[in-house]
Amino acid sequence: MIKVTEREIFEILSGKISGLINRTVLKAFVQQGLDITTEQWTVLSCLWDKDKIIQTDICALTQKDKPSVTRLIDNLEKKNLVMRVSDPADRRNNLILLTPRGGAIRQKTTDVIHSIVNFALEGIPDEELSGTKEVLIQIMNNLRAY
C-alpha cells in the first residue's frame, strides 16, 4: 500500500485541484465574455440536461444546500439566464427554467469546459485516467456512506 504523507492528505482535503479548476474555468469564462461563475455554470448545466425542474432537484444534482442554490438562481435571474414559474402541479414549488439567453450560452460554455479538460488531461494515458476515475468514484461512495 502506498504511504501518503500528512501534507499530501491535507492537499487532497483542501481541494487544491478543485480550486485550481474553478479559477481556471472562471478565467476562461471571463476571457470568452461569459458573465457567469463556475457555480452558476453547474446550475445551468443541470437545466441544459433537463429544463423546468424544481429547486430541490437542482440541490440534489449539484450537491449544494438550498440557501446556496437560492442565491445562485437569484443571480442567474438577474442576468436573465433563468426564470422561476409556478409549478402547475404544486403551487408551493417554483419550476426553474432557462431563458432563451440561458440556452444560448450552452455551446460556448461547453467549448470552454472541454478545452480546459482536454488541456488538464494532456499526456495522461487513458488507462491511468480510467484507474483514477475508479478510485475517485470509490472515495466518493465511501464518503457518502460515512
Strand order of the largest sheet: 1-3-2
How would the global form be characterised? globular
Average predicted local confidence, pLDDT:
91
CATH superfamily of the domain at 36-104: Winged helix-like DNA-binding domain superfamily/Winged helix DNA-binding domain
Number of strands: 3
Radius of gyration: 18 Å
Characterize the largest beta sheet: strand count, sense, and whether it forms a barrel. 3 strands, antiparallel
Series of H and E elements: HHHEHHEEHHH
Query: SS-based structural class?
Result: mainly alpha
Tally of alpha and pi helices: 8
CATH C-level label of the domain at 36-104: Mainly Alpha
Explain the overall architecture:
The protein has a three-stranded antiparallel sheet. It has helices at residues 6-13, 16-31, 38-49, 55-62, 66-78, 100-104, 106-120, 126-145, and strands at 53-54, 82-87, 90-98. It is mostly helical. It is globular and about 55 Å long. The chain has a domain at 36-104: Winged helix-like DNA-binding domain superfamily/Winged helix DNA-binding domain (Arc Repressor Mutant, subunit A). It has eight helices and three strands. The mean pLDDT is 91. The protein is 66% helix and 12% strand. The two termini are 22 Å apart. Helix 2 packs across helix 7 (106-120).
